[in-house]
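User: Let's play a game. I give you a shape written as tokens, and you guess the letters that built it. Ready? Here's round one.
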């Protein structure tokens, strides 16, 4: 009898306990999608913090992104949350991509809407201090977001990725973008390349489109880190368009994130 009562009590406690909180090692589930999040070390759970949302490359995962402890530690030391997002399949669903030439990208836009809503509701994330970034295919989805969801993030930092098939016909409004790319990139060359029935866009053409969209002007050379060479332009709204190159191939460094965040901070965006 006592054993049965004890079992019933334990079962009741388990049933009434809150679901396991998600984090860097546990998926934050959003319908049939998910993301992972690492809050800055020592966060009190009360003070709002900024965040960097990071999109993986082809065949990547949120779990794999979170395994980069050096990147997580750097973002934590910046006092920011680190959010690793996950594509619906092995690649992001983007217009013009080889996996789905007829895609509108609407599925991914809805996913990022849901991610931002969830992290700002479930955690103490300041909605006005979130930067979107990604590498390779993740850089491509970052550009799609800059074009279709410019107000969802404080700024965008695509690395080694741009639109499929060149600049889109329309973008809703300009935002702050810091694009970083290797000059010897053969996977996503600066001038683009054909893949199957589609092509990777020309970065110069994309930047020209965005420059005209936001009326960016007054080219200035920025003081960059390491071997980054950067040119910055501003517009009347205080947005910044910056193009940075490094003498290398298709590669990513965690310092790119801290550099882009600092550029947005100097511009008063975060």
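Assistant: Ready! My guess for every position:
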């Amino acid at each position: 009898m006592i054993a049965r009562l004890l079992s019933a009590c334990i079962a009741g406690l388990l049933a009434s306990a809150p679901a396991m909180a998600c984090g860097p090692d546990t998926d934050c589930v959003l319908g049939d999608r998910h993301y992972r999040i690492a809050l800055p070390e020592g966060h009190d759970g009360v003070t709002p913090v900024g965040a960097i949302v990071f999109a993986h490359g082809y065949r990547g995962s949120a779990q794999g992104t979170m395994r980069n402890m050096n990147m997580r530690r750097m973002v934590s030391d910046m006092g920011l949350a680190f959010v690793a997002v996950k594509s619906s399949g092995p690649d992001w669903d983007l217009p013009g991509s080889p996996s789905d030439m007829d895609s509108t990208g609407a599925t991914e836009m809805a996913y990022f809407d849901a991610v931002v809503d969830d992290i700002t509701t479930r955690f103490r994330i300041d909605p006005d201090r979130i930067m979107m970034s990604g590498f390779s295919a993740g850089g491509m989805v970052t550009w799609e977001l800059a074009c279709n969801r410019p107000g969802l993030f404080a700024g965008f930092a695509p690395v080694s990725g741009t639109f499929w098939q060149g600049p889109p016909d329309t973008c809703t409004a300009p935002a702050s973008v810091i694009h970083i790319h290797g000059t010897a990139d053969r996977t996503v060359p600066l001038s683009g390349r054909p893949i199957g029935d589609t092509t990777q866009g020309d970065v110069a053409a994309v930047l020209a489109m965005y420059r005209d969209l936001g009326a960016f002007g007054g080219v200035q050379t920025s003081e960059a880190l390491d071997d980054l060479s950067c040119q910055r332009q501003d517009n009347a709204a205080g947005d910044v368009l910056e193009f940075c190159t490094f003498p290398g191939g298709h590669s990513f460094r965690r310092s790119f994130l801290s550099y882009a965040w600092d550029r947005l901070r100097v511009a008063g965006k975060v």
